[in-house]
Amino acid sequence: MSAATDHPLTEVFGHTPDLPWPFLQAVAALADAPLTDIAERLREAISPYLATSALVIFTEECTGRPRKKAGEEEIISRVSIAELDALRSALSDEESFFGEAELAGRPRPVLALIHTSSRALLVLTDPRSVDPKREVGMDVVSYLWRIAAQRIHEKVADAPPSFLLESRAASAERVRVTAELTDLHSTTLETLLAALRSSSLDDAAARSTVTDLTAKALIGIRTLSDRTTDLIEQPVATTFERLREDLRPLTRFSGIKVEFVEPPLNGRALPGEVAHAARAIVRGLVLAMVEQPDVSRVRIHWDCDGENLLINVRDDGGGALAADSPNISRLDRRVQALTGHLQIDVMPGWGADVFVTLPLDLPARPAGDVAEWNLAARELEVLQHLVSGERNRTIASLLGISENTVKFHVRNLFKKLDVGSRTEAIALAHSNGLR
Q1: Is residue 195 over pLDDT 60?
Q2: Coil, helix or strand for 118?
Q3: Helices 204-232, 161-196: crossing angle, 10 deg rounding
Q4: What's the CA gap between 312 and 310, in Å, rounded?
Q5: 137 and 26, same structural domain?
Q6: Are residues 215 and 253 in the same domain?
Q7: Which GO molecular function entries does the Swiss-Prot or TrEMBL record give (predicted)?
Q8: Cβ neighbours of residue 247 under 8 Å, at least 6 residues apart?
């Protein structure tokens, strides 16, 4: 006798139809996946239809850092930002690519798909159909990828402070490493050029050929350095123009006038995470404002004082924007994740004035030592999971303890660290080097 037959609801709703439960369960797991697991979940969901050696997701949120990946270690540990950026640049919206591309240091068969709204890139290496007789494989892969890309977009909007702070530190490290490599290889190639051009070498044909090849290699290295810098930093004017493009549909169809006050053209370049977050924060503010009644105009003003990006967004509504609304609270968390500050002045009858300050540099690391907090071993484990962005239920599962026990440890952490929230605890742990 089946469970469905015994269930009292069967009499009301009838028997469960013959649904593709494995596929639906894979979709549910993907839709509920945290950022750290989403690549693995997507690969698992795709595997019944398309076999791959590795899966890599490339997004703009963390300046293109390929953090979301699953599969063969040889591929996912060597795939580079420049390779993914070059592949994405070659694709247009709503386009897929199947062929050979440079990935993880050598040409490989790949299947690449672009997500239209976010420009996120999915790359599958060595793709092969599990069942060549099936014709639904590509449709299913595209469908699952759309779910994953949307999930990533939503999760990044509420990313924990550790996620964004770690990404900014990684960006700075990439600049340093790229500069060192550029100097090293530039010196090597320039020395080689000088030797090959020497009059003591009588094989003119060989010298000419090698000189040309070396010059091209030198240009390639310079181009790589420029491309990496472009990923890490964006001119403030370029970011503001992208914001204007983001809001163009709203200005065209809503009937609401959106005024843009341009930032100075010579303003300091923005770190990638700041540029992306600033656009997202302003978009969220504008959407919250236009949902109010009697709003006909929104004014957006950006400026840069050399140390901070200064944002001002103002509407002409009735002053109904609530500072404690869920939308504004979510935006405020994102501002805090970048160690910024958001202030709202609501003027009844005159509208709302929002000021956002986003620092362009990582905060200086204060003096301190994790050992001085006198944390028990379990408390330190819980804190490390908090820094990774895990919630209480997930921490309980990972540590094999109850959720109430996790809450008990979190309360003790707050007391020992002298903080009042998870955000403050994460920020303090990060500032002391805890990852």
Answers
A1: yes
A2: coil
A3: 160
A4: 7
A5: yes
A6: no
A7: DNA binding
A8: 258, 283, 286
pLDDT surpasses 50 at 3: no
Same structural domain, 148 and 167: no
Residues 31 and 126 in one domain: yes
Half-sphere exposure at residue 348, Cβ-oriented, CA atoms within 13 angstroms: 0
Evaluate if residue 92 carries a pLDDT over 70.
no
Q: What is the pLDDT of residues 378-432, one digit of tens each?
A: 888 888 888 777 788 888 888 888 888 888 888 888 888 888 778 778 877 776 7
User: What is the tally of structural domains in the chain?
Assistant: 4
Q: What is the pTM of this model?
A: 0.45
Instruction: Give the domain range for residue 396.
Output: 370-431
333 within 8 A of 162, measured Cβ to Cβ: no
Which stretches of 212-350 are assigned E, i.e. beta strand?
233-234, 257-261, 270-271, 297-304, 308-315, 341-347
Residues 6+ apart with CB under 8 A from 343: 354, 355, 356
| Torsion on CA atoms 380, 385, 386, 389, rounded to nearest 10 | 160
Owner of token pair 């694709």: 91
Domain at 100, CATH number: 3.30.450
Q: Could you say which of 186, 207, 233 is where a domain stops?
A: 233
| Each residue's pLDDT tens digit, 221-275 | 666 555 555 556 778 888 888 888 878 777 676 678 889 998 887 777 888 778 8
Q: Domain containing 406 — which CATH number?
A: 1.10.10.10
